[in-house]
User: Which sequence fits this backbone?
């Protein structure tokens, strides 16, 4: 089985540690930055960083008859990155935050999605742009969330 990699990038006006803390907050920050493509969000275990277990439904079309997929992720911290593994699909999401300067950070989200070979794999590859757009919107919501709370009081 092949893999498809999807990446979205954003600059955030906050120090890297504040951004990492916000991304690792599965109780308040993460549900607040998800787009309408995500529903049924639940924290099953933990809620902050490594060891957290979270479930949601992802619908790539937001509405309509597209097939929704349930995700149940387990979060780990590996080499400073937040790594989420979906137990249903095998998708791995890696959130990396790098200090750009004292007041800004570069945030990169990469999804590594298993894709079947053949025609079904070609169909999966055709949906890359949609995934990139959705995660770009999530990163924009993160930027807005942090801008609205510059001291990071909601992400502690």
Assistant:
């Amino acid at each position: 089985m092949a893999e498809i990699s999807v990446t979205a990038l954003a600059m955030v006006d906050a120090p890297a540690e504040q951004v990492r803390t916000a991304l690792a907050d599965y109780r308040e920050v993460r549900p607040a930055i998800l787009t309408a493509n995500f529903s049924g969000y639940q924290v099953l275990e933990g809620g902050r960083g490594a060891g957290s277990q979270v479930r949601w439904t992802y619908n790539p079309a937001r509405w309509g008859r597209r097939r929704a997929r349930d995700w149940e992720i387990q979060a780990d911290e590996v080499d400073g990155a937040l790594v989420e593994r979906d137990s249903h699909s095998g998708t791995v999401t890696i959130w990396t935050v790098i200090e750009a300067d004292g007041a800004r950070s570069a945030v990169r989200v990469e999804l590594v999605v298993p894709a079947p070979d053949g025609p079904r794999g070609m169909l999966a590859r055709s949906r890359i742009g949609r995934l990139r757009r959705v995660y770009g919107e999530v990163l924009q919501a993160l930027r807005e969330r942090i801008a609205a709370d510059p001291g990071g009081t909601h992400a502690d």
